[in-house]
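CORE FACILITY INTAKE
Project code: CF-77B
Contact: R.S. (postdoc)
Sample description: multi-component assembly, two entities in total
Requested service: structural model of the whole complex
Turnaround: standard
Below are the sequence entries exactly as provided by the requester. Do not edit them.
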Amino acid sequence: MIIQESISTALDSIRANLLRSLLTTIAIVIGTASVIAMVGIGSSAQKAIDDSITNVSARTISVYPSRGRGKQKINSSPLSISDADALIKDQEINWRVSPEIRGSKTLKYKNESISISVIGARENYLSIQGYEIEAGEFFSSRDDLARKRVAVLGSGVGTELKTSSKALIGKEVDLGGVTFKIIGAFKSEGASGWSNPDDIIYIPLLTASDRVFGRDRVDSIRVEVPNTYSPEEAMISIERVLRREHDIGPGEENNFRINDWSQFTDLRKQATAIFSTLIIGIAGISLLVGGIGVMNIMLVSVTERTREIGLRKALGASQQAILLQFIIEAVALCIIGGVVGVIFGSALYFIITIFQDWSFTIPFSAIFGSVAFSACVGLFFGIWPARKAAQLDPAVALRYE
Amino acid sequence: MSVIEVKDITKHYLLGTQTVEALRGVSFGIDKGEFIAIMGPSGSGKSTLMNIIGCLDSPTGGTYHLNNQEVSTLDGDELAGIRNKEIGFVFQNFHLLARNSALDNVMLPLKYAGVEKSDQIIRAKEVLSQVGLSSRIDHQPSELSGGQQQRVAIARALVNNPSIIFADEPTGNLDSQTGHDVMELFHNLNNQGQTIILITHENEVAAEAQRTIFIKDGLIESDIQKEEL
């Protein structure tokens, strides 16, 4: 009965000072909006990262040459095509091996000339990466063995040459002084991580080794492991093969690095967690500031309504009834702020998912949590003004001018 | 039968380091059905006395029986309960809630009494018709004349069937015609057996009462029945 009356009185009072009430709750709005937006964006980004990692390399292990570190003098080409061949020969695990040579060259077509990333790879590169051909075809293992001068373009390369990758199929281009025939073009894959596969020209591994870069050193070897093996098992096998190939004695350190992509995922997750904590912290401060604002406005409200409080007490309102009325008003202010914040935050999150092409899931727990937290802020910061109101002397309050 | 029995009431205030004796021993009784005026110049202790009889404040010394119940020792919330049940206040400046309708204003004491909503409405409409405002129940105070607002306030005072109606300068903010109408209403209520206490400094208003108590310097100066005037 009293609660119902208190709620309607509180809402009346908020409505009567609508502008003031809204301004008061801005910090609360900002706080909850940032929580909702960040939690939403964070989870969608996480999902996108997880998806891309699952797509590209659920069980892909990459091997890189070690970077020479201080006293550990290692030769300058610790990973070579023969290492990859050794891995292929070792069929203890029926993995797929994809060595890559990477570099940068000048690509010329007609009068256009651009600097471009080059990847020399085997025919299995396409399926291991999960890329799709838009037109033409990818090179075959025969093209590779024959060191053919054929190339496949990322979807964005043609655009940089003032035409399109598709239109370049069948045309001849000049890559670092060597003439290549374009035989295919990829669909647009979009950037992931640091590199953008759309801006790369792909050529057969041995062509890259013998005709373009003049080295048999590879920059990485990707090993795709069947689902039936754990990445740890595979890593041990890779290490065994490569140590044998590199003639590394017992007790000596590897001169190569093996990267399990799950480590990368863990790192990402950690970074996301730190980022989220930071944002929640900022939102917490914002809510705290909002709470102080609400307390301030409630104190003003109590002073303004001293005579009303006096009257209510004269008519029989207990201290508890007055306390309740003002606490409910503070809580209602904060909940309204919280709800407005949820709306703004969700809208922001929704817009960002559209631009980033991410999935949108309503973050229910964050919505519930932040509104509940706002209510607690109102409760906490409403108590002092409400106590002040409840303890007013009715005789004095009635005559307050 | 006496409704109010006050004995040797004193009230001291601490103003800085100085003790102010607002009431220095006041005793009187008021019977059920009386129409009484309490008069006195400002600073006489009249307001203090009113606060104590109205259960808005507690005396420093002495006893106060309201309906045979000792109330001078009650705490804040107990006094709130007494005010809710036993006393109906009418103020000089009406003290209506500006954003509430006449009906809501009249229902307010019933809400604090914990009466069922449907009963609140029935009872509030009843008293509003008693003061002649049946047609104005949905109006907000700003849509009512001063006299009508004071009638709403009187209806609010009556709604819990109080033992006493306490009217503090009830005609102070009204022109003489509406003031007269309001006094007429008080007379009607008094004729129905309602005990009414008027606080006023106007002789004209006090003259409407059957009995007048004059307060001066914290003491009763005179207590006169009308017949003796």
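Facility notes:
- Residues 127 and 146 of chain B are 18 Å apart (CA to CA).
- Chain B touches chain A at residues 51, 54, 56-57, 76-77, 80-81, 83-85, 89, 91, 95, 97, 99-100, 108-109, 111-114, 117, 156, 160 (CB under 8 Å).
Invoice: internal transfer
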